[in-house]
Structure formats: C-alpha cells, structure tokens
Amino acid sequence: MNSQSNLRFIAQPGGALTGSIRVPGDKSISHRSIMLGSLAEGTTHVSGFLEGEDSLATLKAFKVMGVNIEGPENGNVTIEGVGMDGLLAPDEPLDLGNSGTSMRLMSGLLAGQGFEVTLIGDESLSTRPMKRVTDPLASMGAEINTTPKGTAPLIIRPVDGLRSINYDMPVASAQVKSCLLLAGIRAEGQTCVTEPAPTRDHTERMLRGFGYEVETKGNKICLKGGGTLTACDIDVPSDISSAAFFMVGASIAEGSDLTLQHVGMNPTRDGVISILRLMGADIEVLNEKEVGGEPVADLRVRSAKLKGICIPEEYVPLAIDEFPALFVAAACADGETVLTGAEELRVKESDRIQVMADGLLALGIDITPTDDGAIIKGGQMASATVSSHGDHRIAMSFAMAALRSSGTITIEDCANVNTSFPGFVKLASQSGLKVSES
Ligand code: S3P
Fold first, then answer.
1. Cβ-count burial of 42 within 10 angstroms (0-12 exposed, 13-18 middle, 19+ buried)?
2. What residues contact residue 113 under an 8 Å CB cut-off, 6+ apart?
3. Cα separation, 246 vs 153, whole angstroms
C-alpha cells in the first residue's frame, strides 16, 4: 500500500511542545463507522473521520462491495447504507493494506454473507495471527481458509447461515470481540463473548447508537442475531492513541505546555493517561463532554519529571497501542520501568517489544526485552539511526524521543505513519518538534 517504504524522519535534538492542537480522528471508531453505516438502513453522516490509509482501506473495501460512499472531505463521509443483506460480491480480493482491524472485523462481518470473498494485506498484515478469529468463526459454521501458518489471505466461502456462539476469549482483544459480535448479528440465536480483561468497547457503543441492542454484564457481552441497524450521525473524536505521542513528548521535553483538543476519553482506552500519571506526568483533563456516545475532553500536558514504575498489568489492554510511546517515556524517567503481561505487543504491526528494544539500545538506553514486556532503565539518549520496521507507532515514538536525545535521531521506514496519522510531521513541527522527512 505504501510506495515510499524508504521514507525517513530526521529528528533534531531538543525543543519543547507548546500550543493547542487537534490530532486526527480515532482509527477504531472510523473503521466501525464505515462498517455499521454500510450495513444500516438509511444514510449515515460521519464527521472527524480519519483520512489515514487504514480506515481508507475499509472505506474502499465497502465501496468495492457496492456501497455508495461519498468523501472523505475534510473528515466528512456520507454512507448510503445497503442493509444487512445488500452487500455485493466483490470481483477482486479486498486489499486491507496494513490494517489488522479491517481484516479481523471484516472477517466476522463477511462470514455470514452469501458470497465468496478474499481478504489480503501487506507484508506485515500477512504475518499477523488470524486463527484467533477464524477458529471461533468456524465454530459458528463459517468457512474461512487461512495459510497453513494461520495468516492471510483469508478466503471466506458462502455458508447456509451462522450459529450463535458462547465464547471465552483466550486473549484480551477488541478485534476478536468485535469480529464475533459482527458475525453474531447475522447468526441465529444469542452470541456471547467473555473477555479476560476489559478491551475497547467502541463496537458495542456504536451498535447501540445504530439502534442494535447489546447487553454488557461485567466482562460478558451478548447480542441476538437477526436485528437491523438504523443509520445515525457519528462525530469521531481525536484518537487518544495519536494524542499519546504528544502526551509523552510534552511530558519529557522541558518547557512544554501543550493542549490536545477533543480527545476520545473512552475508559477502555485511557490507560496511557493512568500510566503516565503514575510516572509523575502533569496531565489536566478539561472540557469533558459526551459526543455521540463517546466521552471527549481536552488534555493540557506540561513537562514533568518522570519516574520509573512497575506498570500495573490491568492497564495493559487499556493502553495496548501506546507502549512504543510509553517506552520512550520510560527511557526518560528516573529509575527503572517494568512492563509485564504485554506479550500481545509481539504480534502488532511489528514485534513492538523487540523493535523498541533495538532502537532504544542503539540510542544508548539500558533495556532488557522479556517475553511479555521489558525492563527499561532511564538514561540519556544519544544519536542513532533506528528502524521503525514499517510500524507507524514506532516511527512516531522515536521522533518524540529526539526531544530528549543529545543528537539527531534518524528513523527509517516511516511511510506507514500515514496509516493512522496523516500530517504527523507537519503537526509535530508546528508544536515544536524539530522533525522533517527525507
Ligand atoms: C483495535 C484493537 C486493538 C488495537 C488496534 C485497534 C480495534 O487490537 O491494537 O490498534 O480497533 O479494535 P487487539 O484487539 O488485537 O488488541
């Protein structure tokens, strides 16, 4: 999907982050707005849609399946829903690029459709584990082929209806939960998913927004198949995962005072704030309100002296995408930070434990990767060339690290930043980060 895999970020040392900015729209909510809007009856208007490659891959896939979608234009998207049975068989494989969310959620959504469809992705997505969704879907009666390694391409064949399932998820994954709920809306009877720990609940919230009843009792989420979705308007808040780079940057860079506007504050996503606060960060939550069923606030972040901590494991699923940035915070903290219970980081867009450890080691930080986390001793970062391994969040985290390094940090393989944060370099530069592309 990206033609510029050799794109580099050059981040010069020092600087501070100041001003008031709005980072792009939430990726998880943007994906779901296209999926549910397409299956709904009526016209759905979305504002604040993330115009990044991942959510655009979802948008394009639904267009290929015959959904009339206008935009995005300045974050506005209009979707003419086709109803539960209105999708058309695509005559080509659906290319989902780098996007695990598209592939895992769409495998559930498409498992009960009456047509054959193949889901493909880029090199990274083609190595990510898919059995976690195809196994439970198979017990619902779906027919989905993976490679022998359990990876994409996924070939979904038409079946005669789906059975409901009562599934205890072995991993805390919102993608698995959402996949099964989206399959469950087409299945006969009541589908229930129990999660080992709370994960992001955007699917449940948005289904309710579209008028679909979803019952949540503790860690068990249930819905009955056979219902319909009614179109609605969706205001996508700024992505807390994109805001996280700036929260870390403003915390570590002396003299920073940065406000992040309209950030999604869903309690299943705010682990990064809890962890940074435990480390001593100064984050003020202002103008709290609710927009379209999701809490939103402005965050004022001022520089602070961070200290190393043992990260409580219950925060891990609530901050699962923020660990690359948090590793940089830990590298700038006094003392040792210990992360455990985060083995999922090894199967993200890259092996985030190893790739962050390699980069921080190159910068002179004492970090020991473990199977399920890392031990990071705060210290002075020097100058180095590091590789993001095509992982957007690694690239942006190392860019922020330059605020505290003694020399230039060159980051290789940064084109995928466009999957989640188009305009990152421009917005970060405006805020005071000395970063450019080459
Ligand atoms: C997502 C869930 C998380 C997260 C990903 C987006 C979602 O993945 O890492 O970036 O939108 O449901 P897992 O559910 O695999 O943890």
1. middle
2. 87, 156, 158, 186
3. 35
Domain 9-25+237-437 identical in fold to domain 27-235: yes
Pocket of ligand 1 (CB under 6 A): 28, 101, 173-175, 178, 199-200, 320-321, 344
Handedness of CA 387, 391, 394, 400 (dihedral sign): positive
List the chain domain ranges.
9-25+237-437, 27-235
**Quick one: CATH architecture of 27-235?**
Alpha-beta prism (3.65)
Rounded Cα distance between 50 and 46, Å, is 10
Which ligand 1 atom lies nearest to the CA of residue 173?
A: 14
Classify domain 9-25+237-437 by CATH architecture.
Alpha-beta prism (3.65)
Write the residue with the smallest CA distance to atom 13 of ligand 1.
Answer: 173
* Catalytic positions, written as ranges: 321
Tell me which residue has its CA closest to atom 10 in ligand 1: 321
* 175 Cα to the center of ligand 1, angstroms: 5
Atom of ligand 1 nearest to the CA of 32: 11
Measured from the CA of 241, which atom of ligand 1 is nearest? 10
- Whether the predicted model's global pTM rises above the 0.85 cut: yes
- Ligand 1: centre distance to CA 201 (Å): 11
How many Cβ atoms are within 10 Å of 98's Cβ, its own excluded? 27
Per-residue pLDDT of the chain (438 residues; tens, 9 = 90+): 444 558 999 999 999 999 999 999 999 999 999 999 999 999 999 999 999 999 999 999 999 999 999 999 999 999 999 999 999 999 999 999 999 999 999 999 999 999 999 999 999 999 999 999 999 999 999 999 999 999 999 999 999 999 999 999 999 999 999 999 999 999 999 999 999 999 999 999 999 999 999 999 999 999 999 999 999 999 999 999 999 999 999 999 999 999 999 999 999 999 999 999 999 999 999 999 999 889 999 999 999 999 999 999 999 999 999 999 999 999 999 999 999 999 999 999 999 999 999 999 999 999 999 999 999 999 999 999 999 999 999 999 999 999 999 999 999 999 999 999 999 999 999 999 999 999
